[in-house]
Every structure is written in C-alpha cells, then in structure tokens.
Specification:
21% of the residues lie in helices and 10% in strands. It is α/β, with parallel strands linked by helices. Pfam families: LRR_8.
C-alpha cells in the first residue's frame, strides 16, 4: 500500500512538472494562445494501479480536464472528490468494482465523456441528468436494470449511448427525445420492447438491439421514420416479422436479422438481399397487407411516412442481386446484407467476466433463418 501511494504521488509530481515546463515554451511558440487558463488544465492518470481507495490529492481538482481511474479495484468514489471536478471533460472509471456512482456527478456541467463500463452498477443516479454537456455515455458490462426515466429529456447533447451487456428490461420513453443521438447500443439485455415513438431520433445512424434472445418479439412501426439509419442489428431475438415501415429506410445499408424465427418477409426474399426486403415491405404497405387487428395501426403510420418523405405509396422497382448460400449479400448499389457477426466491444473487469456466460458473450453458430 505504501508503494501504491508513492507511485501515485510520483505520477502527480510528473504531471505537475510537465505542465510547468511546457507552458512557458508553448507561450513562446504561440503568442496568441487561446488563454492561460486552458494551459493550466491537466490530465490525471491513475489507471492500472490496483487502487482500492483513492489518496487525498494534493492537486487542485478544479483544473483537471481528464481523470482516468480505470482498471483498479475501487468500490466507491467519494462524493467530495467528484464535486470538485468542476472543469472535467472526460471521466473514465471503467473496470473497477463500483456498485454505484456518487450523486455529486450532477455537478459536472462540462462533462462530455463518461465511461463506467465493466463495473457492478445497478442503476445510474438521477442527478446524471444534470450533466447536460454529456455526448458519450458508456455503461456497458454492468448490472443495470433500468435507466433514469427522464434521461432523454435532459441529456439532449448525447450522441452515443452504450448500455450493452446489462439487465435492462425496457428503455425509458424519454430515449426517443435524444435528437442528437447517433449510436444506440442496447444488445445483450433483457429488452421486451422498444419505445413506440422513435421518430424524433432524426440523427440515429446505428441501432443495435441484438441478443435480447427470448425477450424481444417485435419492433415498433416508428423504426421506419429513423431517417438517418444506416445500420440495424436485431439478430438473435424472437422476432417473427419485420414492420412494413422498414421498406422506407432509404439510407439503410446493413440489416442483421440472424437467429430470429422470421416468417415475414419469407426466406426467399431474404436470399435476394436487402433491396428485395425493402421492396417487399414497401409492397405490403402499398397493398395494405396487414394482418388482422393491426391494419388500423399500420394505416395510421402511412400518413406520417408520407409526411417525412419516406413513402410515396408506390413500389420502388429496383434490381437486386441474388446471393443464395452466401453469408455476405451485396446489392448493386453497395448495400450490405447480413455481415459477419461482430464481437462485443467494451472492456470488462477481468475479475467479473464470469458473470457473463460464454453462451451470452459468444453467439451460437450462425443459421440463415428459422421459420
């Protein structure tokens, strides 16, 4: 323990000395530097020191712009320490043994990147909604059972939300108000449904809700109003049919549907590639091919799709390539269909990898589609 404290102090001294020696030379090189205050901001790295507790810092925490506490054995982060990080932009505490985050995290008004992956966190404090500058939230590999109900109303600058490998049963309705969100990764959870009104996610490019296994059975019709969507991964769920509105996703280039008991579209349509799937779904909308009990719901969406300019009531006849028997299927315009499954990214604490069974982390052998 004495060695750890000395190591921490030596690292702190090095940071401080580097900051002092570099600031004068930088001022000579760039006389019109933005401000002296910016040069005083420091990066503090305590990662990989096997720390169980944090030492009392001799540094003024108010000038820290990045704090890295990752890859330690921390079980708690003091409220008082977080409250003093008034100018922190990046906070990285991944791969520790944290069961919660301090409520004082709401004081970090300038925080843009927060990485809490690879811990044992069961819920995020509601005060996180006060971090309104937050752009990237990584909470992968935790024990999350829910997200704060109003998180989407407050974190309006969020561009990437990663909550894979948790125990989430649903995503709060407010998620649909994250108008700047570009990536939503909620794979490997226990999701039973997605919010109905997704159309406000006008900048969403990647949606991954794969490997919710027996829980996720349907997709909302509003998926067809995700105007910027490029990649949709719904593989390894229990989805039997795709919503017809998917035929209106003009920018969609990658659709992953492996491991679902899909009936609609039928297998022969999938074998022809993504263009054929889009055309089939568009035809169903045009012809009113709704099952009993869902026609009124589908017709109510047609007006919205026309309003958003994604559906014109006519089938778009385009040529598509047929790639039967191939796992990689490409249409003539370069769209990819069902690429090889990618492994989960994110870092988990080695001590707690055992909480995720191999069957969850590494999907079973690929099968085309089961009926």
């Amino acid at each position: 323990m004495m060695y750890e404290k000395q190591h921490v102090q030596m690292r702190m001294d090095l940071i401080r000395n580097n900051n002092k020696s570099g600031s004068f030379s930088n001022m000579k090189k760039e006389e019109k530097k933005t401000s002296i205050e910016e040069e005083r901001f420091e990066i503090v790295d305590f990662s990989g020191l096997s720390l169980e507790t944090l030492p009392s810092p001799s540094l003024n925490l108010g000038i820290v712009s990045k704090l890295d506490l990752s890859n330690n054995n921390l079980q708690i982060i003091p409220e008082s320490l977080i409250a003093r990080l008034l100018n922190v932009v990046i906070l990285d505490v991944h791969s520790n043994q944290l069961r919660s985050l301090p409520n004082s995290i709401g004081c970090l008004s300038k925080l843009k990147v927060l990485n809490v992956s690879g811990n044992l966190i069961e819920s995020l404090p509601k005060t996180i909604e006060n971090c309104r500058s937050l752009e990237d939230l990584n909470a992968n590999f935790n024990q999350l059972r829910k997200l704060p109900d109003t998180i989407g109303f407050e974190l309006t600058n969020l561009k990437k939300l990663s909550v894979n490998s948790n125990k989430l049963v649903f995503l709060p309705y407010s998620i649909s108000h994250l108008t700047n969100l570009r990536i939503l990764d909620a794979r490997l959870n226990c999701l039973r449904s997605l919010p109905e009104d997704l159309e406000n996610l006008i900048n969403l490019e990647t949606l991954n809700v794969s490997q919710n296994f027996q829980y996720l059975e349907t997709l909302p019709y509003s998926v067809g109003l995700l105007l910027s969507l490029v990649e949709l991964d719904i593989s390894y769920n229990k989805i039997t049919s795709l919503p017809d509105s998917i035929g209106c996703l003009r920018k969609l280039q990658t659709l992953c549907v492996d491991g679902n008991p899909l009936v609609s579209p039928p297998m022969e349509v999938f074998e022809q590639g993504l263009h054929a799937v889009k055309e089939y779904m568009s035809d169903r909308m045009n012809n009113g091919g709704a099952s009993n009990g869902s026609k009124s719901k589908k017709s109510s969406w047609v007006g919205r799709l026309v309003k958003y300019g994604t559906f014109n009531g006519r089938s778009q006849k385009t040529s598509s390539s047929s790639g039967a028997g191939s796992r990689h299927r490409h249409s003539h315009d370069g769209e990819a269909f069902m690429p090889e499954y990618r492994t989960i990214d994110g870092i988990a604490s080695p001590s707690y990898l055992g909480m995720f069974s191999p069957r969850r982390l590494f999907s079973s052998p690929r099968h085309s589609f089961s009926r």
